[in-house]
Design brief:
Blueprint lengths: L1 H9 L6 E6 L19 H9 L4 E6 L15 E6 L5 H8 L24
Parallel strand pairs: 1-2, 2-3
Length: about 120
Amino acid sequence: MRTRAIVLSSLTKIDYAIVVVGEHPYAETFGDSKNLTILEPGPSTINNVCGSVKCVVVMISGRPVLIQPYLKTIDALVAAWLPGSEGQGVMDILFGDYGFTGKLARTWFKSVDLDECW
């Protein structure tokens, strides 16, 4: 616990944290699952870091996943989907080299009950 306290106290010296969480990489049917929650350590990381400092969460996923439990602690959310080898493009946007453009291909739901496609 002492190490965690030191890390959390050092977070007060920064303006923003970038937290990258999401699903493990997969292709096609290997990612099929009815469980739409973010796996650990994603939720713990979001709660610990975003609860201590302003944060941008970059969500890596091949589908919309449940983020509603974390929205109160997140200052900004980027749906990066599965960028593969193009992670640099995500960084270019986060650090202002290019502006955010585009539109989500589908509505990101608040709960599983609202998503009729699953």
